[in-house]
Every structure is written in structure tokens, then in C-alpha cells.
Design goal:
Blueprint (H helix, E strand, L loop, with lengths): L1 H15 L9 H20 L3 H29 L9 H20 L7 E6 L3 E3 L2 E3 L4 E5 H9 L3 E3 L7
Antiparallel strand pairs: 1-4, 1-5, 2-3
Helix pairs in contact: 1-2, 2-3, 3-4
Length: about 160
């Protein structure tokens, strides 16, 4: 179970260094998966339900908390290790959060958070087909997701006066 020792090292490195990332590579994630599968296989052959359920709960919790911590850290230090397996996820989350911030602060919107958007690509909403360059009003959630997908561009108050 030397894979567990390496996984522990990554977690300890990540938590102890507040200003940089430990690189998560495919090899490390593969080792973690092998440990998980080995225990899963053992559990399928033994009737230790409590132990196996607890292992699965703890393993899921550790991986999820590490991912959340890395995400929050990438946002706080405003940097991502693009060579890391999770680099694209971290960068995507940073883009979504920046867009959310911009829409909330500078988006042209109504008091009930309907956002004025310019259509960039043709798409259908309910029974209406929206054409490029037309304007539409969308909920914050719709504006955020459709903007990420490239269908709309939320109209913004200029950043600089």
C-alpha cells in the first residue's frame, strides 16, 4: 500500500504550503484508484460491511475535500498549475467565478436579477429561436451557463469610468 503513503504526502504537502500547489498527475490518481479498487475487491469477498462502508465514505470524503481545497486555493492565490490533472477544472472554475462576479457587479440587469444579453449563436429557448446579435433577458443562472457555452454575452457596464 505504498500508494497510500504517496497520497498522504500529496495531502500533507497541499495543506502545509499555502501559496503553491502539489502537482496531481495521472500516475498518482491511478495509484489512488488502484488502492480504492483493491479495497473494493477485498470488500466484495468479505462480509465486513461496516468497515467497507466506512472506508468508502472516508475515501470519498478525502478526495472531495482535497478537490475543494485545491479549488479554493487556486481562486485565492489566483494561479493554476496547468500541468496538473485537475488544472483545467481549476481554471474553468476561476473563469466561471470571474464571470459571475462581473455579471453581478457590472451586468445590465433588472432588480429581479434578469440579465440583458446579446445572442452570439443561434439557439432555442422554450418555443422561441434567438438569432445572433438579438437581445434577450435571462435569469442569472441562464446567462452564466449560456455565456460559458458561448451562446450569449451578458451586457456589462464598462469596467473603467
Amino acid at each position: 500500500m505504498s500508494e497510500l503513503v504517496e497520497w498522504d504526502r500529496i495531502i500533507i504537502d497541499e495543506l502545509s504550503n499555502d501559496s503553491s500547489f502539489s502537482r496531481l498527475d495521472a500516475e498518482l490518481l491511478d495509484k489512488a484508484r488502484k488502492v480504492y479498487l483493491r479495497v473494493y475487491e477485498w470488500c466484495s469477498q468479505h462480509s465486513q460491511v461496516e468497515i467497507c462502508e466506512e472506508f468508502q465514505r472516508l475515501w470519498n470524503d478525502v478526495v472531495e475535500k482535497l478537490a475543494r481545497y485545491r479549488l479554493l486555493k487556486s481562486i485565492r492565490i489566483d494561479r493554476v498549475d496547468e500541468q496538473s490533472v485537475d488544472g483545467v477544472i481549476m481554471e474553468s472554475a476561476r473563469v466561471v467565478l470571474k464571470l459571475f462576479r462581473d455579471i453581478v457587479l457590472r451586468g445590465i440587469r433588472s432588480s429581479d436579477m434578469k440579465i440583458l444579453c446579446r445572442v452570439r449563436q443561434r439557439f432555442a429557448k422554450q418555443s422561441l429561436v434567438l438569432e445572433p446579435n438579438s437581445l434577450t433577458i435571462l435569469s442569472l443562472r441562464e446567462a452564466l451557463f449560456l455565456s460559458i457555452l458561448g451562446f450569449v454575452e451578458p451586457l456589462m457596464i464598462p469596467e473603467k469610468v
